[in-house]
Amino acid sequence: MRLNVSLKTKTKKVKDLQGVEAPTNDLTFKEFEEYYGKKLRDFKFKKSMFMTDNGKYSYNAFLLSDQNDVALKIIEYAGTTNEEIINSYEYSNCSLITAVNKVLEKLEIDDISYSEEREKIDKQALKEAFINAVVHNDYSFGDAPIVEIYSDRIEITSAGGLILSMTQREFFDGISLCRNPLLSKIFESIGLSNNSGLGVLRILDSYKRNCFEFGWNYLKVCFKYNPKTYIKNYYQAI
């Protein structure tokens, strides 16, 4: 469900969804509370954390509710362009955290990124890039991060670009400025992420800085396969 916000808010200035009302106030959190209750015990989860100042559910609440319909997607293409889709997966109508786990599970179980015919993508880097995309995504655009699988690379794109006032140098130095603080804290509490900026540094342990592409309204991470492996597969296919 697309956020009802003005064009003025569709910029890098959107830092936190806690002050934005949910599309509906008729929300339930059965899945979230039952499945993640034990892990969230130390976080001292309170329903009031999901409320705006006027006593209505925030957009953070909507994302973590059973009614969340913001879809996380995986799209697999036949070649190096997006002309031919061979597989498409969409995860919504569940808590955002559940959708995240389903994406990670799909990537692992279906071996989309780790087939023997391709150089193995660093699993930790891929996970860090996807979690960072989810936590720092600007949901005011109405879009969620997307994972795109090409024959020579994997791309993860999130909406919003760098948060206002953050420079690329600070980004690469691991400086942590969070667009969605509550989401970040909850993800950290259940062990999906950390709030220290280490995610970017872990990616840079395995990949060069040019794997990141910065746009005003998006941030993309590209993990390329080994060129020799790709060329070998290409000639085997023709």
CATH class: Alpha Beta
According to CATH, the fold-level topology is: Heat Shock Protein 90
**Strand segment count:** 6
Strand content: 5-15%
Put simply, the count of helices is 8
Q: Architecture, CATH level 2?
A: 2-Layer Sandwich
Mean pLDDT: 81
Low-confidence runs: 2-15, 228-238
Order of strands in the sheet with most strands: 2-1-3-4-6-5
Shape assignment: globular
Q: Terminal Cα separation, in Å?
A: 43 Å
Give a summary of the structure in a few sentences.
With 238 residues, the protein is an alpha+beta fold. The protein has helices at 30-36, 59-64, 96-109, 123-136, 168-172, 181-189, 198-204, 227-237; strands at 72-77, 85-91, 146-149, 153-159, 212-214, 218-224.
Describe this structure in words.
With 238 residues, the protein is α+β, with helices and mostly antiparallel strands. The chain has a single domain (70-237), classed as Heat Shock Protein 90. It is built from eight helices and six strands. It has a six-stranded mixed beta sheet. Strand 1 and strand 2 (85-91) form a beta hairpin. Helix 4 (123-136) packs antiparallel against helix 7. The longest helix is centred in the middle third of the chain and has 14 residues, at 96-109. It is globular and about 50 Å long. Mean pLDDT is 81; it is low at 2-15 and 228-238.
List the helices and strands and how they pair.
Layout: H1 30-36, H2 59-64, E1 72-77, E2 85-91, H3 96-109, H4 123-136, E3 146-149, E4 153-159, H5 168-172, H6 181-189, H7 198-204, E5 212-214, E6 218-224, H8 227-237
Parallel strand pairs: 1-3
Antiparallel strand pairs: 1-2, 3-4, 4-6, 5-6
Helix pairs in contact: 4-7
